[in-house]
């Protein structure tokens, strides 16, 4: 089965229209949020390193640390492997994230080959690297590879947005939200964009970098 790829704003709009027709609550959110962002990113080492940087941090903190990493020229495998712990700490990396960054740099992933592999296989290869969990792999597949039918139910902003939009008694757990998201196939990635946008409007802050 060929996976849908999100390449343009028109692709996102198509998915949003499908979701709005499927569930009036999505239509309500879309009316509030307006056109959804494309959120396509480059693929490759830098994006995964950036994702590791963002783990368990606010958007503002992650942006600040990534800016320092870029200013230090520490965004490529060779420079990561050559950097000292002091270099990393000056940028704001914890000891654990230093080891994760070095493991990623040493992994020698074939990023070009990942573009054509099924999403499940891409995530399997990514999660095999220490420091890359399910959330990081899902976000990479969603935004860097543009896969249209990937969701990240472990994301706290998505959980909170779902609680608000669907009027749930409590924030859904990862397993429950994953099951719920299956109803949004084949546009789960657009559902994620819509929920992040809804979170931004409702909470007045970004839920993802």
Overview of this structure, please?
This protein has 209 residues and is mostly helical. The protein folds into two domains: 87 residues, Endonuclease Iii, domain 2 (Orthogonal Bundle), CATH 1.10.1670.40; 100 residues, Hypothetical protein, domain 2 (Endonuclease III, domain 1, Orthogonal Bundle), CATH 1.10.340. 63% of the residues lie in helices and 0% in strands. It is built from 13 helices and no strands. It starts with 8 loop residues before the first helix and ends in a 6-residue tail after the last helix.
Please render the helix and strand layout as text.
Elements: H1 9-22, H2 24-33, H3 45-54, H4 59-71, H5 77-82, H6 85-91, H7 95-107, H8 111-114, H9 119-127, H10 134-144, H11 156-165, H12 174-181, H13 188-203
Helix pairs in contact: 1-2, 2-13, 3-7, 3-10, 9-10, 11-13
Structural class label: mainly alpha
The string of secondary-structure elements, in order, is HHHHHHHHHHHHH
Averaging pLDDT over every residue, what do you get?
Answer: 94
Question: What do we call the CATH topology of the largest domain?
Answer: Endonuclease III, domain 1
Oligomeric composition of the shown chains: single chain
Any idea what the CATH superfamily of the largest domain is called?
Hypothetical protein, domain 2
Please compute the radius of gyration using only Cα atoms: 17 Å
The low-confidence runs, each spanning 5 or more residues with pLDDT under 50, are none
- Percentage of residues assigned to helices: 55-70%
CATH class of the largest domain: Mainly Alpha
Strand content: under 5%
Measure the end-to-end span.
31 Å
User: Using DSSP, what is the number of strands?
Assistant: 0
Which overall shape is indicated by the principal axes computed on the Cα atoms? Answer: globular
> How would you sum up the major sheet?
none
Per CATH, which architecture of the largest domain? Orthogonal Bundle
Number of structurally distinct domains: 2
Query: How many helical stretches?
Result: 13
